[in-house]
Design goal:
The protein has 217 residues and is an alpha/beta fold. The chain is built from five helices and eight strands, in the order ββαββαβββαααβ. The radius of gyration is 18 Å and the shape is globular.
């Protein structure tokens, strides 16, 4: 979830989001890695939005903060569409990170998914902006996988966990470190339509506070 601001003089559009992290697996390393990954990946494409037949550069400005003492009431009472909340834990049911829906502002991250260059934070951020997983998950011959392709996607061998593995076999699916934000991902945000409708907010409030998952015996 985030807000859109336009600088007509500089021909730039800014998409601003703030992420608050809570939970038992917080660290400054995780915070810094998430902030760097999201900003780097979503800005390196230098995405273009066309307004009134002029190209505007889309700039992402994402701040990530630690907020260990946040409460369910804090999240439920928030009315700032720039704010997003994610629990960070060493255990998650299903062993996955997730958000609470497309275009939402809350979720739950598994700490082991947040290693440097994992692309998990950038991928889940895309979900908070409303982007789904693509429907076709065999993209051999199409080159670099876009950021919204999930684990299990069939890709060219150079983008697999193991280049020598058979497609779809163990090691023969998308290694997430190879995902990149592409102009198509920028197009799919439909920011021009938001601006035309004068809706400068992307996403909606899910406002879910997550308790830590507990392993079942």
């Amino acid at each position: 979830m985030g807000i859109i601001e336009i600088d007509h003089h500089a021909l730039q559009i800014h998409l601003k989001s703030t992420l608050f992290l809570y939970g038992n697996a917080l660290s400054e390393i995780i915070r810094a890695n998430m902030e760097d990954e999201i900003n780097t990946m979503w800005n390196e494409v230098r995405g273009i939005i066309w307004l009134n037949h002029e190209p505007y550069l889309l700039q992402f400005e994402v701040d990530v903060h630690l907020h260990q003492n946040i409460t369910p009431t804090d999240i439920a009472a928030n009315t700032n569409p720039q704010y997003n909340y994610f629990r960070i834990e060493d255990f998650a049911h299903g062993n996955i990170s997730f958000v609470d829906g497309l275009g939402c502002n809350t979720g739950y991250f598994l700490s082991e998914n947040l290693y440097i260059n994992s692309t998990t934070a950038a991928h889940e951020y895309g979900h908070t902006l409303g982007l789904p997983h693509p429907e076709i998950l065999d993209i051999r011959g199409q080159g670099i996988p876009g950021i919204m392709y999930p684990r299990g996607t069939i890709v060219d061998a150079i983008y697999q966990y193991d280049e020598k593995a058979l497609p779809g076999a163990k090691g023969g699916t998308l290694y997430p470190i190879h995902r990149r934000v592409l102009q198509k991902d920028i197009d799919d945000l439909h920011i021009d339509a938001h601006i035309i409708r004068k809706n400068m907010v992307i996403g909606q409030f899910s406002s879910v506070y997550h308790a830590a998952h507990v392993p079942t015996v």
